[in-house]
Design goal:
Elements lengths: L1 H8 L12 H19 L5 E8 L6 E3 L4 E10 L7 E2 L1 E2 L2 H8 L5 E2 L3 E5 L2 E5 L1 E2 L5 E8 L14 H5 L1 H15 L9
Parallel strand pairs: 5-7, 6-9
Antiparallel strand pairs: 1-10, 2-8, 3-4, 3-10, 7-8
């Protein structure tokens, strides 16, 4: 990450600019990473997982902060090792089947609604696990941290340099076209 920022700052268009501080360079590299990540879609998405413990009478659960798209949701009773895959449903189907949130039972279906994972029926027991497999956004790059490198910085450092340079060029008023 640090090397990419230095390389951008040393480009002929920027070498004499004193207003390109570390914050602006960091932001430009991270913006370029997000733009390429969006353009390349799932090629470099990270599949990850987490566990959410259910709460009796609660059917909506916040998705992880790095959540991009759900791959699968499993249900496991507390203390057991066997898990059951839940079925993804659309809102119309889900509302027709589980319209009354007071109706409880063993979770069988799921959907994403308003940024939350909604399961149906509403769990009738606490301490049951929802195991989520999902695609995650890459964390922003940062100096001197575990997030100072990733597969983008290793495989596409030139693309990040030029993507950041394009963003900075537009900021600096240079005639540069954004290329994705």
């Amino acid at each position: 990450f640090e090397q990419i920022k230095i390389a951008v700052k040393l480009l002929p268009e920027f070498i004499t600019r004193g207003d390109l501080g570390d914050y602006l360079l960091s932001r430009a590299v991270n913006d370029a990473q997000r733009r390429f990540h969006q353009d390349l879609q799932s090629r470099f998405e990270e599949k990850t997982g987490t566990t959410i413990v259910t709460i009796s009478g609660t059917r909506d659960y916040t998705v992880p902060s790095d959540y991009k798209a759900m791959h699968s949701v499993f249900y496991r009773k507390g203390g057991e090792t066997d898990k059951t895959i839940l079925t993804r449903r659309d809102k119309e189907w889900f509302d027709a089947k589980y319209g009354d949130p007071a109706s409880t039972g063993t979770p069988a279906d799921w959907m994403i609604w308003s940024g939350n994972l909604r399961i149906g029926p509403t769990p009738d027991l606490s301490t049951q696990d929802l195991l989520l497999d999902y695609l995650a956004f890459k964390a922003d790059l940062a100096d001197a941290s575990p997030n100072n490198t990733n597969d983008f910085t290793v495989q596409f450092d030139q693309a990040l340099r030029w993507g950041a340079a394009q963003d900075l060029g537009m900021y600096a008023g240079l005639p540069m076209e954004r290329v994705s």
